[in-house]
Amino acid sequence: MAIPFEQPRSFDxxxxxxxxxxxxxxxxxxxxxxxxxxxxxFLMLGDFSFDGLMxxxxxxxxxxxxxxxxxxxxxxxxxxxxxxxxxxxxxxLRRHSIMPRRAACRSHIHV
Length: 111
Description:
- The chain is mainly alpha-helical and about 110 residues long.
- It has four helices and no strands.
- The longest helix is centred in the N-terminal third of the chain and has 33 residues, at about 15-45.
- It is elongated, with a radius of gyration of 23 Å.
């Protein structure tokens, strides 16, 4: 019994571009949310006032500038770890919006 010749499926560039743009938008918005959470942290430390926020940022900046290379590297590693944890938590909470459904972009085709 001969196997019928099947046509190779064509690659759907439009759907791939749509998924990549959606994924880029999701990651970008999640990164901005994590930065917003860091600003919220400093606002909380500053008693939810702009003056307190600036005071806390000045305190952090003066300590960072006075630190030696090892301590500055440790601070940078700590900040990177906090940023990664925030990103992971936010991506976990937003996992439903990471990739769009394929049916959503082809809703005009009825099978």
